[in-house]
Amino acid sequence: MSKATTGLMNDHDAILSALDLFTTILDTYSNEHIVDPEDLFDFLEFLSEFADKCHHGKEERLLFPAMIAAGVPDRGGPIGVMMAEHIQGRGYIHTMLESLEEPEDLSRFEKAGRAYIELLRMHIQKENNVLFPMADKAISPEILESMNSAFEEYITKVIAQSRLAELQTQLKALKLKYLH
Fold first, then answer.
1. Percent helix, strand, coil in the chain (nearest 5)?
2. Using CB atoms within 10 A of its CB, is residue 161 exposed (0-12), middle (13-18) or buried (19+)?
3. How far is CA 154 from the centre of its chain?
4. pLDDT tens digits, residue range 67-77?
5. What is the pTM of this model?
6. Among residues 115, 69, 73, 74, which one has the least CA distance to residue 91?
7. For the chain, which has fewer Cβ within 10 Å, the N-terminal or C-terminal residue?
8. C-alpha Rg value of the chain to the nearest Å
9. Phi and psi at residue 36, in whole multiples of 5°?
């Protein structure tokens, strides 16, 4: 695997760990019907900013265009499927945010959250096992090498390092609270 796709897989590891936490939070709500809506907002910030804006942004703005330029079709193939799933995931996040406007009934949040978890787990598996190996074969080693630097530049443009650290701190606090 190239440094670029390895970096994306490292993002996936962080996201999968967060999804394990999210499952625990949803299970806590389901069993006890008690969860702090602020915790849910914090978690959605992580999903929106890290998983979507940072990680999916790197794929959509850098990896996918490089794959298309290397001859991988953007419609009807894996890139089209991944894009559709990114959009579907954003829809689940939107539904979860909307449902927090009525926090006395979080069943809509829970349903969208569980669908999001299932979607992302399958999505990550497809990217790790199909899309990223395809990218490593299709894109020249020189472009893959420069892509790793481009990923770092992209992250710096879309989210400040201090905000990234804040999100990681929020996630650690949620883990301490829910994974006891």
1. 85, 0, 15
2. exposed
3. 16
4. 999 999 988 88
5. 0.92
6. 115
7. C
8. 17
9. -75, 120
